[in-house]
Request: fold
Amino acid sequence: MYPSVNDAHRFTTDGHPVPASGIPSTSPTQPYAPPLPYTTSNVRFRGQPGQWSTGLCHCCDDPANCFITCFCPCITFGQIAEIVDRGSSSCAANGLIYGLLGMTGFACLYSCCYRSKLRGQYDLEELPCVDCLVHFCCETCALCQEYREIKSHGFDMGIGWEANVNRRNRGVTAAPVLAPGMTRC
Reply:
């Protein structure tokens, strides 16, 4: 009869719950709207807005990623960059660019740009210091923190942007449309 509490129309456009008024939010004159398709603005996550979900040095929260990042940071960076770019660039291409820049010593400049983009997308504070210094002094810790942050927003880092979007939109379907002239038997 009534839509479930978890439906997207129960949240305002900025992701906060609609205040309870005791009056149903749908009525016979207002049709039920299906949940919104995936965008980064309607994703719920752990942590407070403006705060990172984990600290810079909480690498023990995800030891497998910490291990991979220590020995091959181009993999972690590629995964981060694909999600931050919303699929406009591939994990492999970003990882390759990062690896080539790593040989010159400029990889931290490239990766700090993605930290800034990530902070902008999720309205995160520039902590513990400016992005370039974080990546220059603690590159692997910064990559691990960014990886954990994206995971805390509900992304499966191993499957990439397209598969994450498909997974989130899987349950969203439009009502079937009957072709003119068709009738029920």
Observations:
- The chain has seven helices and no strands.
- Residues 73 and 81 are 12 Å apart (CA to CA).
